Amino acid sequence: MKISGSEILLESLKKEGVRHMFGYPGGVVLNIFDLLHDEKDLQLILTRHEQGAVHAADGYARATGKAGVALVTSGPGATNTVTGIATAAMDSIPLVVITGQVPTMLIGNDAFQEADIVGITRPCTKYNFLVKDVNDLALTMKEAFHIASTGRPGPVLIDLPKDVTTGKAEFHWPDSVKIRSYNPTYEGNKYMITQAAHMIAKAKKPLIIAGGGVISSGAAKELTELAEMTQVPVTMTMMGLGGFPGTHKLSLGMLGMHGTYYANKAVQDSDLLIAIGMRFDDRVTGKIDAFAPHAKIIHIDIDPTSIRKNVRVDIPIVGDVNRVLTVMNKVIREEVKEPWEEVRKAWAKQISAWKKERPMTYDHEADVIKPQYVVEKIFELTKGDAIIATEVGQNQMWAAQFYQYDKPRTWLSSGGLGTMGYGLPAAIGAQLAFPNKLVIDIAGDGSIQMNIQELATAVINKLPVKVAILNNRFLGMVRQWQELFYQERYSHTRLDESVPDFVKIAEAYNAVGLRATKKSEVVPVLKEAFSIKRPVFMDFMIDWQEKVYPMVPAGAAIDNMLFPEEKKKPEKKLRAVK
Amino acid sequence: MRHTISVLVENKFGVLSRISGLFSGRGYNIESLSVGETIDQKVSVMTIVTTGDDWIVEQITKQLNKLIDVIKVVDMTELDHVEREMVLIKVSPRQEDKAEVLRLAEIFRGRVVDSSTKTYTIEITGDEKKIAAIVELLRPMGIKEFVRTGKIAIAREGIKKPQ
To answer: Which of A7, A16, A50, A376 is catalytic?
Structure first.
């Protein structure tokens, strides 16, 4: 029996196990939305902006590991998805974005709400399709999910002309899919893995750098096993947070521009870096010529282009992190027996000395609300058992530094693209996937305003996300750079009285608004927010001068870190000795 | 260093722009690019001449391989191979140079494919050096128009350079 393209689309989504998607209707997708009106097994969450829909699908994907789905209309609906798609592409997040398109016979005629979205998104998708024939639709859907979620994951876009949604075809769902030109390498080269294992045994100062690949390949357990067995300390990229327990004694926290002192020192002093599922982004390496000058580098990644892109590599291993680590652990267990604790003693001592020398800290005595204090209290009150989304800027870095992520998929943050406005919709996506979890967006007063309209989505769908706004009345991260490198010329970063009353905004959206202006109010506000089963905005009026430290200035070596100015100790007057 | 890279791709619309977009988006050079069908109509071959140091060329081949529509990438420069390019040169020589033009065409095994009272159009096929040579020799005679196909390349059978 022939069914319409719209029906094929929905059937295909169901066959792929999709239960939720995010979207926004419009002219050319009306036929699909008409079917959704009676649909029971597939829920579409109406967002208030298409960018919000894609970020929500992205948050859903990061929290669950399954591809997120967004459905929008043509033209502006499609172009509004671009930032969300680019965000997912930079962070290797599996998404399937379905855009409506004008009827095939009108394509190229500058029709109403026409945009060449396949052309526009070609460089920021893993792949994209324009479906011209309804008979190809089911296979295209199968291929789209396959490409999005295998290999190095990423966003895939399907452009669907209106006549394809109305055209009829038999529905044949392919059991499997084979694309001859797409064959990701999963198994690492055994010889290389063995070499790497022996190198780890020989190294005096080895260090693991774990990236987002550990999370996307589900290798957190294998990584912990490797680190514990060989007693190698672990630092994480921002994307890798949660890939290794932040509270683990071998954890050095995050490295890079706002990484910990001890992580960056360890990189620069190390004689062997084991880079796992990461890509040596400039925010990680700092000045590339001065990066890890003494280290040999083992680089494990599923994407061959990540290897030898930015840094020299001694042992490249192309493969799925999970499978490579499984083999490596086996090799080490069986072939490379060392008295690990003993071998690592000196290195462990050095690292703990660095930890003591400059721990992650801030001014605990201050009367004003320090943002780090808020984040720390969120960690304490949730016992780390929450999903944290962030916006971008200072709020994101404090959230990365002062909350310890022990489990994968509990940290949702736009790493590569650094997209302000990501956090709230991403939190909504995660909350939909995990209705009983506490989902918190750690935000700034600048970022939150970029997709603040999604509060309506949270309220109407009873998704009780909590938003902790670290409100400094500034575009804080840019202000920090202006203070440090532009002679305190705060060009266009001072928001001041233009910052709206977030409590009133929350109330206007029928959510709950709470505010803390004093340090003593922070914990009560958090406790109250966490006890309410509705979306809450928490407005924390923080110290506007607070900066993110340590900081490696752009283009400097990563051990060239800036720290807060030390408070001068009152000088003791010496008594004259008679 | 200059590299000639042969790329087998699915013969689908949009593939050319995926390849050219990769080069422009990542700031790689394209000196020439030629595209044509292979014996299998579903597959096209693109021959791309690019320049860059070893790091860049390694990235270029990896990035090409990563594109979903790319079936195979071969850096011809690493193999013993044959390269050819065709040019059409329209020359408008003075009366006294006409014989020399025809003689040069013959020496280079070119063919005159069009002639008028004032011009000859010569077709020449060869590798880069040969084409550069004929151009240099014809230039003083007055080249009016000049069109080249871009390079195509094929590996020689069975002879691989030792690593």
So the answer is: A50
Mean pLDDT of A39-54: 97
Buried b (16+ CB within 10 A) or exposed e, B43-67: bbbbbbbbebeeebbbbbbbbbbbb
The residues, ordered by sequence, that sit 6+ positions from A68 with a Cβ below 8 Å of its Cβ are A21, A22, A56, A57, A58, A59, A60, A61, A93, A94, A95, A96, A429
Closest-CA residue of A relative to B63 is A305
What whole-number distance in Å separates Cα of residue B115 and Cα of residue B87? 16
Cβ-Cβ contacts under 8 Å between A and B: the total is 33
Does the pTM of the predicted model rise above 0.90? yes
What pLDDT was estimated at residue A13? 98
Which among A143, A144, A151, A156 has a CA at the least distance from the CA of A88? A156
- Residue that has been written with the tokens 């871009």 in this structure: B150
CA A26 → CA A7, A36, A53, A133, A473, distances in Å? 17, 13, 14, 21, 37
Residue A515 structure tokens: 């505010």
Cβ-based neighbour number of residue A221 at 10 Å = 13
The catalytic position among A14, A43, A113, A228 is A113
* Beta partners for residue B143, in sequence order: B91
Q: Rounded distance, CA A11 to CA A39, Å?
A: 11
Rounded distance between C-alpha atoms, residue A272 and residue A232, angstroms: 10
Active site residue A145: no
Helix intervals (H) in chain B? 15-25, 54-66, 98-107, 128-142
> CB of B115 within 8 Å of any CB in chain A?
no
Handedness of CA B153, B156, B161, B163 (dihedral sign): positive
How confident is residue A56, by pLDDT bands cut at 50, 70 and 90? very high
Handedness of CA A483, A489, A492, A496 (dihedral sign): positive
Joined tokens for residue A559: 């051990």
Query: Rounded distance, CA A441 to CA A431, Å?
Result: 11
Give the pair of three-digit tokens for residue A528: 């109250």
Contact B66/A at CB under 8 A: yes
The first and second tokens of residue A317, run together, are 């291993």
Residue B2, both tokens: 């200059």
At B1, the amino acid letter reads M
User: What order of strands is seen across the sheet that includes strand A155-161?
Assistant: A43-46, A20-23, A68-72, A95-101, A155-161, A127-130
- Give how far Cα A357 sits from Cα of A352, A360, B15, Å: 8, 10, 55
Nearest residue in chain A measured CA to CA from B8: A181
Q: What is the mean pLDDT of residues A533-546?
A: 97
A308 with B68: Cβ contact below 8 A: no
pLDDT for A338 equals 80
> Which residues lie closer than 8 Å to B1 by C-beta, 6 or more apart?
B51, B52, B53, B54, B57, B77
Catalytic residue among A21, A257, A420, A477: A477
Measure the CA–CA gap between A569 and A278, rounded to whole angstroms.
42
Distance CA A456, CA A537 (A): 12
- Minimum Cα–Cα distance from A180: chain B residue: B71
Question: Which among B62, B71, B73 is the top mutation candidate for probing chain A, defined by the most A β-carbons within 10 Å of its own β-carbon?
Answer: B62
Are A332 and A298 spatial neighbours (Cβ–Cβ below 8 Å)? no
